Amino acid sequence: MVLMGFRLRVCLVLLATTFSTIVLVNSFQLQKFDVTNRKHLTALEGYGGGRSSNRYTSNQDRSKRQERVGHVVRTEIASIIQQGFSIKYADFIDDDLRRRINIVNANVSPDLRQARITVSIIAATKTKPTDSESDDEDLEEGEQIFASDITVDQRRAYSWLVRSTRMIRHSMAQRLSHMKTIPDLTFVQADVGAAVDVMKLIEKVNQGYKRENIGTFGGGDDSLPEGMYLEDEFDEEDGWLDEDEDEEEDEDELDEN
Asked: Among 28, 30, 47, 186, which one has the highest count of C-beta atoms within 10 angstroms of its own C-beta?
């Protein structure tokens, strides 16, 4: 009986020890799993998990800064071009054309070192003769001052802007001395006419406009565009003769003689 009681005690001790060991091992594994998960979550945060909001906020701040600097650059360039006298060593341009240069937009790069300036040239208005001029005998029909060709004005104004880019930037740097960096300027023309045509076409399509017939050359019929002709339309009556036919006629005349 004593031996059996001793064996029972030993078995109970072994069971208790085994159970304690199992509990310790499980708790250790749980702690290890928790640490691993924390490291994994930290790594995910580094790739945009927890810092995505910070990155989004940074992008928002950057875009706001670009917009703010672009607005300042646009305002200053418009003021410089309208004043004219503040541009040193710039090529000559008549005041009327210079004042018709409109600064549409200033798009600044993320590093604030480049600025794309979009400009448009306003068409000149037509002026009418005054009453005194109409009463003058020498000006019976009145003095006619036509609006200048907008295409020529656009070329002249844009060429002047390109040649005066460095001077305009230098003048802007003097006015914006509080800024750390002054962006390099690149002027581009805004094709306002093409944009208006596209808007009109979109409006027509929205209203149900549809072309009934489209010709071979894109017009309403198959007629050729103005100034274009087919080779078959040139005949001998128009003075167009084939050189081979001329040589054959000369050979026939020689044989007859």
From this structure: 186
Does the residue 31 lie in any domain? no
Q: What is the DSSP secondary structure assignment for residue 125, as one 8-state letter?
A: P
Is 9 within a domain?
Answer: no
User: What's the total number of domains in the chain?
Assistant: 1
Residue 90 — φ and ψ, nearest 5°?
-85, 150
Q: What is the CATH number of the domain that holds 203?
A: 3.30.300.20
> Is residue 112 domain-resident?
yes
The tens digit of pLDDT for each residue in 150-192 reads: 788 888 999 999 999 999 999 999 999 888 889 999 999 887 6
* β-pair partners for 115: 108, 185
Domain region containing 196: 81-125+146-209
Whole-angstrom distance, CA of residue 43 vs CA of residue 37: 10
Of 217, 200, 218, nearest to 209 (Cα)? 200
Record the pTM: 0.49
- Could you tell me which residues come within 8 angstroms of residue 120 by beta carbon, excluding any fewer than 6 positions away? 102, 104, 189, 190, 192
Nearest to 169 by CA among 158, 181, 159: 181
Say if 173 falls within a structural domain: yes
In DSSP terms, 117 is beta-bridged to: 106, 187
